[in-house]
UniProtKB/TrEMBL annotation:
Source organism superkingdom: Bacteria
Signal peptide range in chain numbering: 1-15
Compartments, as annotated in UniProt: Periplasm
Species name: Falsiroseomonas frigidaquae
Protein name: ABC transporter substrate-binding protein
Every Solute-binding protein family domain range: 64-422
InterPro entries linked to this entry: Peptide/Ni-bd, SBP_5, SBP_5_dom
Length: 522
């Protein structure tokens, strides 16, 4: 009741949206809006509106479409991609876009100085060359079967060198300059980020009816942590769009005549509890497998997501490319009695305080996470379920503006996170290569066989070879249990009847992509 009253009090402050302005609501802010230094969805949903990529992903999540590149060719050996760029493209400040901007942006992405946690997504780059002002040669050291798909992600957006150099470390926090349909106006951290229409934009992706400029003049990305406040704002028309819908309210929201709920079946976003496998307690495979056996994921999804998500087993969605069905059969199932036996057999004996002990080490571990409603709920439930088998989980949740920095440390033993992907190769390459330590491989997984299989899959030109290598990894991780996948999120985007022309997209978990067809009715 208190939360509901707080929500209703908050609504007037959000009311009276100006004409041709759309207010997006979200739960958390990003730590920064530097596309090469942040992996947060909250960064990507804004950066995707401020930048363009060489190629784009259609709404089916599979088909590659033109972007800043009108067309491209691939050499017979799969190592050189030649991109022919659009003419007449400009940055938000009016500067003309050329091949040199592509060279700069990709090189900054992969530079050791940038230390991008997702530089691997650019592939094993040998050289990026500007053949002329509108032609790029993208040469690899070896084939990379997913290069075009990776180049659709916001990390591959093209940015202006002069703006980056002028702002230095403040790029993405005090300004931004891209070629996208919207331009940076202002950012008040943990409050709102404002974008304004790029008036010269006329090169939108072909899956939109409108190639640009955008119909809407101004977009406000507003942070509203309280879920009932977001819900009230959408229902009353005080805000227009959000994909951060409290799942408990989803069924009733669909019955509200002034709101539409959009969805997208081609969407992969998983929640997990990851373990640092080189830390005390977490370095014991028996403990990790016992955690799997102690957690009732079906009950967890009912309690946290109210049935609007799927319980997960292994780390790859069954609908994703190169999913291995056998690996799912190898994941420990929910069985508290089996969890007790697993711990007993591994030498973890119950202590007087209800926490197990082995060789003087208590079965306790510290878990970090971002302070979201899902993390609050699932951490409490898992904590209770683990305590019943003699494992103590301590929890610290942080605001998103500081959480990413805390999770880049070695201070914790486990963490709650969620992540998007579009194939098994994409998901496994993100987290499990030893080169990705300490982030995003926050589990500190360091296995030469995993590295070899990943390298084989990435460079494979034969789909069967790639599929076998990725299946081997999925089975290995199912046995070793370095993390517990808890739920597979569904994508829902709530839209007020003041806004038309939106479709849910889902690339990298981002509900609304470009928004070129979006209009306001008043």
């Amino acid at each position: 009741m208190v939360a509901a009253l707080a929500a209703m009090v908050a609504v007037p402050a959000l009311a009276q949206t100006p004409r041709n302005t759309v207010v997006f609501l979200r739960e958390i802010d990003a730590d920064r809006y530097d596309l090469h230094r942040s992996t947060a969805r909250s960064a990507g949903e804004v950066v995707g509106m401020m930048t363009d990529t060489l190629v784009t992903m259609d709404f089916d999540g599979q088909t590659i479409r033109p972007g800043l590149a009108e067309r491209w060719t691939v050499s017979p050996d799969g190592k050189t991609y030649t991109f022919h760029l659009r003419r007449g493209v400009t940055f938000c400040d009016g500067k003309e876009f050329t091949a040199e901007d592509v060279v700069y942006s990709i090189n900054r992405w992969i530079s050791r100085e940038t230390r991008s946690p997702v530089a691997w997504r650019a592939g094993p780059v040998k050289e990026i060359r500007a053949v002329d002002a509108h032609t790029i040669e993208y040469e690899l050291n070896e084939p990379f079967s997913e290069l075009l798909s990776q180049l659709t992600l916001f990390f591959a957006g093209i940015i202006d060198k002069n703006t980056v150099e002028r702002l230095g470390q403040n790029f993405g926090s005090q300004g931004f300059n891209g070629t996208g349909p919207y331009c940076w106006a202002s950012w008040t951290p943990r409050n709102e980020l404002v974008l304004t229409r790029h008036p010269n934009y006329r090169w939108g992706p072909p899956m939109y009816q409108n190639q640009g400029p955008a119909h809407v003049e101004r977009i406000v990305w507003r942070v509203v942590p309280e879920p009932s406040a977001r819900l009230a704002a959408i229902q009353t028309g005080a805000a227009d769009v959000t994909q951060y819908i409290p799942t408990v309210a989803l069924t009733s929201l669909r019955r509200v005549p002034t709101v539409s709920v959009l969805t997208q079946p081609n969407y992969f976003w998983d929640f997990y509890l990851g373990f640092k496998v080189d830390k005390p307690v977490m370095n014991d495979r028996a403990v990790r497998r016992a955690i799997h056996q102690a957690v009732d994921r079906e009950a967890l999804v009912r309690a946290v997501w109210f049935g609007h998500a799927q319980p997960a087993l292994n780390i790859i969605n069954p609908n994703a490319l190169d999913y291995d069905a056998q690996s799912d059969t190898m994941v420990p199932r929910f069985d508290p009695a089996a969890a007790q036996r697993t711990l007993d057999e591994a030498g973890w004996t119950m202590g007087s305080d209800g926490v197990r002990v082995k060789d003087g080490q208590r079965a306790t571990f510290l878990t970090y996470g971002i302070n979201t409603l899902e993390n609050q709920r699932q951490s409490e439930i898992i904590q209770q379920q683990l305590r019943r088998v003699g494992i103590e989980m301590r929890i610290q949740l942080f605001d998103a503006t500081v959480a990413w920095g805390r999770m880049a440390t070695q201070e914790f033993d486990a963490l709650f996170l969620s992540y998007p992907y579009f194939s098994a190769g994409d998901a496994l390459s993100l987290y499990w290569h030893s080169r990705a330590r300490p982030t995003p491989n926050r589990m500190n997984w360091n296995n030469p066989q995993t590295d070899a299989w990943l390298d084989e899959a990435r460079s494979a030109t034969d789909p069967a070879v790639r599929r076998t290598a990725l299946a081997n990894i999925q089975r290995q991780l199912a046995e070793e249990a370095p993390w517990l996948t808890t739920a597979r999120e569904n994508l829902y985007v709530a839209v007020s009847n003041r806004v038309t022309g939106l479709r849910a997209h889902g690339l990298y978990g981002i509900g609304v992509y470009k928004a070129l067809d979006m209009r306001t009715t008043r």
